[in-house]
Known about the structure:
Layout lengths: L2 H36 L5 E5 L5 E4 L5 E8 L6 E6 L3 E10 L8 E8 L8 E4 L8 E2 L13 E3 L20 E8 L7 E7 L9 E5 L2 E6 L8 E6 L4 E7 L6 H9 L3
Amino acid sequence: MKRGTVRQMSKLGRRHRLTAVAAVAVLGGGFAVDAWLNQDPEAKVYEGPVAGQLLLVSSDGQTLTLSIGWGCEKQPELVARETAGTVKVSLRHTVPPGFCDPGGIGRITTHLNRPLGTRALNDATGKPVIHFDERNLLRPAFLPENYYPYPAGRMVELPGLAPLPTDTPAWASGYRLGTDPEQGSLIISQTLRNSTPPTGRATGVKGHPATITQPDPHDGPRSLTWSDGTYTFVVTTGGPPRLSDQELIHVAENLG
């Protein structure tokens, strides 16, 4: 074969190889551009105060539980930072980009390295956090048949039921009938406040005046309210089916 012909074929081979490499580079670059265009920006993560939320300190002083509702973000996290004299808590929010989900209502917890004890419980800003001490929380010794505590991390919310105050220690426990979330529910709340029961059907609980109220006699929750001089208690039935007045009173009489 002539030397010129070999040189020409060599140039032709190099041209083909360069063309192939260029094609791969273009394709690879196309994939890279496509991946870059479809890459979600980072989620926004920030910490905020816990003010306005219900906070419970467990009986052993080492678990903090927060009742919270949220929307357009992932379920928030409760964060605690401890020193010898204080515990500071905050809410860590994570907001994914580009979408907004319905959110939820639930309970989140965090655990301390040692019991809270006499240490101050503060917000991340340094302000005191109002909290309920579980050692003072009364529990029902009687529940109607087939009523069970709501699953961990869930919280009952009944339409028409006034929210608990957040300017004084308060807590609520939820129960439901069976496993169907659409069935009857029961909420027992306890607030560190002595208050006069609202206007309603008069009755009594443990020797204290009480009333039964139902804003809508045909629909909506019905509540039994009374105070023992220190705490105000409300036992509320949702549904249907709803508990009878006698069942509400029986639940209330057996709180301890």
